[in-house]
Amino acid sequence: MPDDVSLTAGLDYTSTGTWEAERVYTQENLTAADEAWLALNIDYAFVALPTDQAREMDLPASLRFPWDHNKDMYLLSSVHSVHCLQVLHRSNLEYRTNHTQTYTTEHLLHCLENIRLDLTCNADDTPRFVPRTAHESTVKTGVDQLRQCRSWDALEKWAKEHSACFNYHEFERKELEENVVYPAAWSFCGEGSEYLAQVQRFYGKGVDWVLKDGGTPDIDAIKAGKGKSPIPVHRAGGGGHQ
């Protein structure tokens, strides 16, 4: 078993997984599969790390965390690739439903290249078996075969412990509307966050006001050709920034 540990979150290859013939994201019910892709939550994509710690890790200077300028924000590479998968899925959904593409070809190629680089960087050398009936019909390789993995749950837990108060839906909405994303997309410091009071002061709101996620983009709206306007983020406490 590999014993190398990741340098940032301290992840090692202690989990096992399998390639499955059908999962929620590949099920025959395309509507349910589409909804599963849209429901993927990657709000933990950005982490806020103390600047001194980042320098000790030889990380380049990065975008400042808006609520603590002693911290820099970093986008986790594997979670960025999940974002890219969501972008590619959305493009496929719009193609299947004969609607205008939300993302440009350049953005799609950027995502394909990032996923390619992630794959070649990790260079997974697990030998996938090919069923001996492969000569008889089209088959899927490696079904139910065990593989050694790092724990995604552990990565998510570590990322949330270093939260940058990021909200993907707000980022997507601002980006697609060509609005400024900073600091709006990093303003979702929830109840209990040490930074919530600063966010409230920044937006001129009271102590009961907290930014809320408006939920996943509406699949019916996308199919109706309204994919460029994800559901707006709803805000508690009487309004919020635009």
UniProtKB/TrEMBL annotation:
GO terms for biological process: mycotoxin biosynthetic process. Pfam families: UstYa. It comes from the Eukaryota. Belongs to the ustYa family. This is Uncharacterized protein. The lineage of its organism: Eukaryota, Fungi, Dikarya, Ascomycota, Pezizomycotina.
